[in-house]
Fold this protein.
Amino acid sequence: MTRMLPARDSTIDLYPTRLDEKRHMFERLDPVVYGHASSGPLAAHELDDYEENGYLFFPGFFTADQLADQVDELHRLRQRDDMKDRDGVVTEPRSSEIRSIFGVHANNALLSRLCRDPKIIGIARQLLGGDVYIHHSRVNYKPGIHGREFYWHSDFETWHAEDGIPRMRAVSCTISLTPNHEFNGPLMVVPGSHRWFVPCLGETPAGHYRESLKHQFIGVPEPDTLSRLVHEGGIRTLTGPVGSVIFFECNVMHGSNSNITPYPRSNVFLVFNSVENTPGEPFAARERRPEWIANRRNHAPVRPI
Amino acid sequence: MTRMLPARDSTIDLYPTRLDEKRHMFERLDPVVYGHASSGPLAAHELDDYEENGYLFFPGFFTADQLADQVDELHRLRQRDDMKDRDGVVTEPRSSEIRSIFGVHANNALLSRLCRDPKIIGIARQLLGGDVYIHHSRVNYKPGIHGREFYWHSDFETWHAEDGIPRMRAVSCTISLTPNHEFNGPLMVVPGSHRWFVPCLGETPAGHYRESLKHQFIGVPEPDTLSRLVHEGGIRTLTGPVGSVIFFECNVMHGSNSNITPYPRSNVFLVFNSVENTPGEPFAARERRPEWIANRRNHAPVRPI
């Protein structure tokens, strides 16, 4: 069973990372599931599954029809010439194509509807045990042909180090706007890896977020640690049609291979954090990341439509 | 049906490539299948399949037991300190790990046995219609974690441009020494793409082979051409256990995504060429590639063990 800490003090660094010397991974100090089967849409066996594997995958959670407006919006946004130089718009490392647009839960009427879908919010509330807010949101274009790989990492490691999120009480949610094939760089997860915190080597460079959104070299596990986790849990490749939804625990090890095919892999990506787990000062970085990637101003609970 | 040219003149450039200006793809001028169902191990429906799609995939062609010695040899060779600086040994772009060792049909007793397997040779002879020799062979280590993607290309385009192989009458064969999973960068092919020759843009740089074995920027299709081929034929990902065998036609468009998993994807790779299709001078390069990658000395037909 998971060890629980009695008191809550958001300034104590329970998960030291970005270290000078290698330190072994250790068991997480926080629960995985905070709610109960009676408190939301997920059944007991689904909560058990999430507890054990660190993610839940729902192929075809939405129908393609239900997402038609959002898919149109995706294409419209990419055509707009005024997008590329905005804060919160990230381009591909080897081209000027848009890779991600952040803040869609706040700045885009159509996409924000998905962020407040009653069942999506219900699942997030159930997993995190009560009110949740959005730490960040984005639409990812992930164009094909030159789509780069994204190396293995735990999102929590970054949010803890660079945003000061104190505890593991957050969950990411992706909603596919294009099909995820086995060949266009789908999300890969290491089941069970969320039970271990992997301290990473190396100091956080200034402005690291700009690079880490394109390719990540800091905040990633050493190859032997990754091999141990994979040896234990294997690798699951999450493929499915438009409208598939993945909830993955903030500390599960995940990544994706490159995408040389012409098929983009676009999705809406949401990070739900518990209102009891708001960010303090970064635990392992000299400066805060910008507001568009690390929401510090608005922790009002998300309300479903 | 494929148009046939009456006379054989190996100095005529039927497939111009590495051009200054874009030229559209055009239908191949050579047959795909040169032999008959009665002349080898493949049945008529298998020959039809190859004619249509440009490849044949045999999961578990060999058993893991049958390849045990070769798998041991693979590991032994990697341990040897004297390998890395040899001609014909290529390392990974981002590390000093061995990526490929060339010439194994000639320089390695254990691996050369595979190159002369009676059924393998029988299929190559049947597809190419008579005697065949080995244009090159190699063992590919393809280590995981930092395994780079390999962009779409036709092998024939390179062999024609850089080695002076005049016609499409060659076939590649890979024999897996590790499992090919969907997540460790398996071979992807575009079925039917072998029916089209895609002239490529850009002059061949000096010493291009050294780079092109690590990542290829010259001799690759433009994105819109690739999209047309994929729109027509789709993408097939070839996954299977140790001992799986792929025969792919020299002009089929193929590539592979990166491999960030800890699972290597090792194989023996053989290129069979018809003895009636031997290389002349390069059609679109200033210098010949080295002997270890483009066999010009020994065109004696391969004999099965």
User: Anything to note?
Assistant: Chain B has a mean pLDDT of 92.
